[in-house]
Specification:
four-stranded antiparallel sheet, seven-stranded mixed sheet
Length: 120
């Protein structure tokens, strides 16, 4: 079983910054991919950014140049630095982790979500 603990959400004014973090724990053998997704009220959950073991990074077009994803392999933690925040960035942000428990058992786990509200 994998436990994900997210932190860093909150209320920020337009143009401000927030840093999200997500720490994974449990009987994890390897982590292959870490990512952040978001879901605004009445909308589907969409990709924000992902980073793989090889540090291949993918961003949604809407956040390119403003958000930066990074990972600390020693701590099984992924971060999302969000700058120049806009009201349309308001959403619940979910951490996603994909990896293995063993050579034959893979997993995908979601965090509980953290609210980010951008408003004046």
């Amino acid at each position: 079983q994998v436990r994900l603990v997210e932190s860093g959400g909150g209320l920020v004014q337009p143009g401000g910054s927030l840093r999200l973090s997500c720490a994974a724990s449990g009987s994890i053998r390897t982590i292959n991919s870490l990512g952040w997704y978001r879901q605004a009220p009445g909308k589907q959950r969409t990709l924000v950014a992902t980073i793989t073991t090889g540090r291949s990074i993918n961003y949604a077009d809407s956040v390119k140049g403003r958000f930066a994803i990074s990972r600390d392999n020693a701590k099984n933690t992924v971060y999302l630095q969000m700058n120049s925040l806009k009201p349309e960035d308001t959403a619940v942000y979910y951490c996603n982790v994909q990896g293995t428990f063993s050579a034959y058992r893979t997993f995908e786990s979601w965090g509980p979500g953290t609210q980010v509200t951008v408003s004046s």
